[in-house]
Structure formats: structure tokens, C-alpha cells
């Protein structure tokens, strides 16, 4: 192996060698990675390859009518980059797209990004300690070759859409639309439209297109929970409200914190048979019955599985729209398309002008292109039967390869943006060690990955996510739940706060202590720093215990005490308030 240039007689401890990084995808994860890398590191080269003509990932691609985020807009931002002038509580995809474009321009991230470039292959060279990457220029068709020390997969998992598996797709002579590949030139006015799917995108698109179509037939294979308003309902912000947020940053911060506090206080709703689960389910049933006002419809629309088995999505107007005169709900799966319409599992046939498929994405985490490890094994083959992922950020057996929103990442509840930040911060701890310790390669150990997967498998049966329901969280072939972290959002953030060095297999160029260099510190190479920085008037050293660090970080003791919905040690299946180590029933 050819070692990188390093002179132990000249270079001080933690000498920063140059490093080349390739990132795949310029959505929220890729932009966050570029920003944080640029903010903290020097002596690096970064290229982000993005297949789309623009940045922001899923929010560039999804433009169907009614498309919006299911998280309050003020909290669907980077924690350090608020936006005061969101137009409504739940922002549209176009507005979110504008936010990420503005973020990229503000921090000059465009210089790293090559749009319309799609990575088609990545092969690890053990001898070089590099990834050799093949890219296709989608404009010219030219095939390009590049290489890097570290490869970052930031393409997300909600970008691989497909038509539903229905016979006769090529027979239908009407117009077919997919919510993930919407054609805005198609005019739905006065058309007979069929809609397949009642997941998040189906719930959003149905009320949006109902007023303009002639008839709308909603094909519903299985019922879904319609979430009641928890916190702030969807509405447009007034000019006065926007001005207040613009002029008073403290009020904006307080608003964002209140939203986060609400979302972070209800994780126990996802624990099977918990008090919050039972209360929310009863509330959903009551509100759905009130809207439907029909026992037969209620029986068809209200699920039997627990609330939260599939992703909870605000659904303003969905059930109300189902009662409109031009809307028909068909509780049967579409099994075949004909030239003029479709045939359902129950044998009914429906003529259609347009068929809208709100059938989501492939969330199996199958790789979109070959990723070949040091022994010639592809990641797709290695993950064929089990997703051997470490904490949602790395893959066993694949060196210098990290990912954002990988398997077992926390995307089930709350905003995913703070979790992306958490993942990127953790990955950059590895990048820092790589740059300053003459590391050849790093990869999670098979034992660490195996133990993590075993813990996840042990935890999941206690949650509603493991129940039988149609859910994007699950892998159909295995029934597993790879899209979710085994715990709450705050749990994930705390788990990734520190780097667990013993979980990693690290290989060095030569002697692992060569990084000690010529015996001098970096401070002695800095003519402008304080060489007596450690002399203090009082102890300002970092807190030694996790507990103390957490209390300081979360400002423990500064807030009004709240009821804690946590498993009681005496009754693990009950969600209770634990106060002074005594358990008592909690009320919401």
C-alpha cells in the first residue's frame, strides 16, 4: 500500500492531511453535511453528485397537489437556521424547496454540487484506501470516473418510486400519474379520476383534486387512521403573526421549542398498550365516527390496529372529502387495468380518464447502484437477508462509507431534520479522526452491528410498529421495521452524542501512533494562540459524567415540571408519571 505523504520530523501532532470526499445527494442530508464540513474543516475537497436538476431532494421531486410536510413548518428547518415567514402551519413542498435552495445559496454550498449527475457504481480499493466512483452526466450521457477517501450516502430513502404491481399497466389508454412524479401539465378538470392509496400522499392529494374533477373514485385496500389535531391545526399565518416572528426572535424560538416539546413528550404512544396509546386510539375513533356519521362507513374506514403502526399524518379534510357527492370510496384493491379503466379484487369495473397512484416508495433500502466492498461483495448482496447497518449511519464490511437516514434511523415521529444533524455530527467525528490520525480505513465491527440488530429486534415487539398493518416503515419480505430507531427522537440524539470507538475496526497507514509527529502541539504551530490556555481562575473543564453533561445541555431545572409518560419500574406496560421514584397514573 502507498502511504499518504507525512513527515514525522516536520508535522506536529494531529497534522491535517488533505482528504477527498464524495457525497451522493443534495437533499437535506447532503446540504447539512456540506454546511457542517465547511464550517469546521479545512484542507478538504468535496463534490456532491445530485441526479436532479436542483437541490432539496424529495421536496424537489414531489409536487403533487396538496403536497406538504406533516411537521409544523417552523420545526422543519435546521436547528440553527430558522425561517420566520412560513406561510402556513404545514408548509407546501414548493415552500420547503425554496427554504433548502435559500440555505444552499446563503452558505455558498452550490460550489460543491454537480446537478444532473447520477452515481452508478462505487468500488472500494483496499490498496489505495479509496472509493472509485462511476458517475453518469445525465445531460451529455458521458460516463465519468472519480475517487475519494470517504463516501457519504445522503440520497435518502424516499426517492425510489415505482408504479404499483398491477396487471395491464401498459393497456390503460388514459393518463397515469404517480404522486412522486407528478405531471403538472395534466388537466384534471372535468375528468373521471381514480386514486390508489390512502397513505400520507393519498390523504393529501384527495382533498386537493376533489373540487376540480368530475368524479373521484378512491380505491382503499386497507383502512388508515385519520389523526386528530394535536397541537396546532393547519392554517395560514396572518401578516401580523409573520411580522412578530420577524421582529422578535425570542418569540419565534419559543414557538419552535413549544412544538418540539409537544412532539418529544408523546413517544409512549408508540408503546403497545400504553396509557397514551389507549387514549389517542379512543380519541381517533370518536372523531372519525363524528365526521363519517355512518356506522357502515366507520366500520370500513376505522382500523383495528393501534394508532401509529403506520406513520401518523395530519389529514385535514380527508374524511370530510370522502362524503362529497362526487367522491366514491371503493374498499377493494385494484388488480388489473384495462384500456378504459380498472378492475377491482371484488370484480367491480370502473371507467377512468386518469389514474393517480399514491403508492409511495420502495423503502426496502435496496441500493440504487452497485456498492462493492473490499472482498468484492456488493452491499445489495450483503443486505439481501438482513440490513447490517450500524446506528443508521454505516454498514458492516464497507470501509469509509457512511450514510444519513440509513436503516434503523428515527423517521417515525417528529421532524427528521434534527436527526439528520445528529447523524452528520457523529459522522464528522469519524472524519476528524480520519484526517488527523493517519487512518487508512474505518468500518463498524461485525460484532457491534450484530449486537445493535439484536437489541433492535428485542425492542420492536414492544411497539405498535410491529403490529400487522400496511406501513412504509416495514420491509414486506421480512416484516421487519428498518425505518425506525428503537426509541424516541431524544433517545437517538443521546445515543449518538459520543463516538463509540470500540464499535469500530480501524486500520492505519503504518504505526498508529505516528500521528504524534515531531513532538510539538498544533498550538505551538499557531503564532496567535494562547499557549497558557489551561490556566484558569475557576474550573471550566468539561463535565466528566454523562448525567451532568446532559443536565447542562438540556438546561435541566429551568422549566416548569411536567408529567413524565415513561414506563414505570413496577408496571412496565403502564405509562405513568414517575415522581420521587414513586409511580402513579398520569393524565394528559
TrEMBL record:
Top-level taxonomy: Eukaryota, Fungi, Dikarya, Ascomycota, Pezizomycotina
One Pfam family, short name: NAD_binding_8
The family this protein is said to belong to: Belongs to the FAD-binding monooxygenase family.
SUPFAM superfamilies: FAD/NAD(P)-binding domain (SSF51905)
Matches recorded under InterPro entries: FAD-bind_Monooxygenase_sf, FAD/NAD-bd_sf
Name of protein: Uncharacterized protein
Amino acid at each position: 500500500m502507498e502511504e499518504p505523504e507525512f513527515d514525522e520530523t516536520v508535522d506536529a501532532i494531529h497534522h491535517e492531511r488533505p482528504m477527498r470526499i464524495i457525497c451522493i445527494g443534495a437533499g437535506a442530508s447532503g446540504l447539512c453535511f456540506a454546511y457542517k464540513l465547511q464550517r469546521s474543516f479545512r484542507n478538504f475537497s468535496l463534490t456532491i453528485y445530485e441526479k436532479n436538476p436542483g437541490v432539496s431532494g424529495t421536496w424537489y421531486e414531489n409536487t403533487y397537489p396538496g403536497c406538504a410536510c406533516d411537521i409544523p413548518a417552523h420545526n422543519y428547518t435546521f436547528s440553527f437556521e430558522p425561517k420566520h415567514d412560513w406561510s402556513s402551519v404545514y408548509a407546501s413542498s414548493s415552500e420547503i424547496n425554496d427554504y433548502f435552495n435559500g440555505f444552499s445559496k446563503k452558505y455558498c454550498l452550490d460550489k460543491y454540487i454537480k446537478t444532473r449527475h447520477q452515481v452508478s457504481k462505487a468500488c472500494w480499493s483496499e490498496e489505495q484506501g479509496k472509493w472509485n466512483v462511476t458517475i453518469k452526466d445525465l445531460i451529455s450521457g458521458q460516463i465519468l470516473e472519480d475517487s475519494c477517501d470517504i463516501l457519504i450516502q445522503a440520497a435518502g430513502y424516499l426517492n425510489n418510486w415505482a408504479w404499483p404491481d398491477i396487471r395491464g399497466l401498459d393497456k390503460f389508454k388514459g393518463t397515469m400519474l404517480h404522486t412522486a412524479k407528478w405531471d403538472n401539465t395534466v388537466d384534471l378538470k372535468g375528468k373521471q379520476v381514480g386514486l390508489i392509496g390512502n397513505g400520507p400522499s393519498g390523504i393529501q392529494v384527495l382533498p386537493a383534486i376533489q373540487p376540480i374533477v368530475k368524479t373521484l373514485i378512491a380505491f382503499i385496500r386497507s383502512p388508515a387512521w385519520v389523526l386528530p389535531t394535536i397541537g396546532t391545526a393547519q392554517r395560514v399565518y396572518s401578516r401580523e403573526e409573520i411580522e412578530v416572528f420577524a421582529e422578535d426572535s425570542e418569540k419565534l424560538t419559543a414557538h419552535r421549542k413549544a412544538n418540539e416539546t409537544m412532539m418529544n413528550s408523546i413517544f409512549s404512544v408508540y408503546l403497545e398498550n400504553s396509557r397514551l396509546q389507549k387514549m389517542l386510539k379512543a380519541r381517533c375513533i370518536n372523531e372519525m365516527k363524528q365526521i363519517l356519521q355512518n356506522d357502515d362507513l366507520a366500520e370500513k374506514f376505522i382500523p383495528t390496529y393501534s394508532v401509529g403502526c403506520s406513520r401518523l399524518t395530519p389529514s385535514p379534510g380527508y374524511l370530510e372529502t370522502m362524503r362529497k357527492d362526487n367522491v366514491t370510496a371503493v374498499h377493494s384493491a385494484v388488480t388489473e387495468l384495462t384500456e378504459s379503466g380498472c378492475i377491482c379484487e371484488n370484480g367491480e369495473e370502473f371507467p377512468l380518464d386518469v389514474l393517480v397512484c399514491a403508492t409511495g416508495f420502495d423503502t426496502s433500502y435496496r441500493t440504487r447502484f452497485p456498492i462493492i466492498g473490499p472482498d468484492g461483495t456488493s452491499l445489495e448482496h450483503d443486505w439481501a437477508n438482513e440490513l447490517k447497518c450500524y446506528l443508521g449511519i454505516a454498514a458492516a464490511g464497507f470501509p469509509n462509507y457512511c450514510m444519513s437516514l440509513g436503516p434503523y434511523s428515527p423517521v417515525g415521529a417528529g421532524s427528521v431534520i434534527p436527526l439528520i444533524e445528529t447523524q452528520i455530527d457523529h459522522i464528522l467525528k469519524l472524519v476528524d479522526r480520519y484526517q488527523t490520525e493517519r487512518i487508512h480505513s474505518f468500518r463498524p465491527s461485525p460484532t457491534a452491528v450484530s449486537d445493535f440488530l439484536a437489541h433492535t429486534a428485542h425492542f420492536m415487539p414492544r411497539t405498535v410498529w410491529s403490529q400487522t398493518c400496511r406501513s412504509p416503515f416495514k420491509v414486506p419480505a421480512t416484516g421487519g421495521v428498518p425505518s425506525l430507531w428503537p426509541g424516541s427522537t431524544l433517545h437517538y440524539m443521546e445515543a449518538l452524542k459520543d463516538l463509540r470507538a470500540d464499535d469500530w475496526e480501524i486500520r492505519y497507514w503504518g504505526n498508529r501512533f505516528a500521528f504524534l509527529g515531531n513532538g510539538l502541539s498544533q498550538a505551538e504551530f499557531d503564532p496567535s494562540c494562547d499557549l497558557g490556555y489551561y490556566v484558569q481562575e475557576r474550573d471550566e473543564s468539561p463535565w466528566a459524567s454523562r448525567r451532568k453533561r446532559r443536565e447542562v445541555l438540556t438546561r435541566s431545572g429551568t422549566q416548569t415540571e411536567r408529567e413524565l409518560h415513561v414506563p414505570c419500574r413496577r408496571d412496565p406496560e403502564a405509562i405513568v408519571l414517575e415522581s420521587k421514584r414513586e409511580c402513579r397514573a398520569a393524565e394528559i
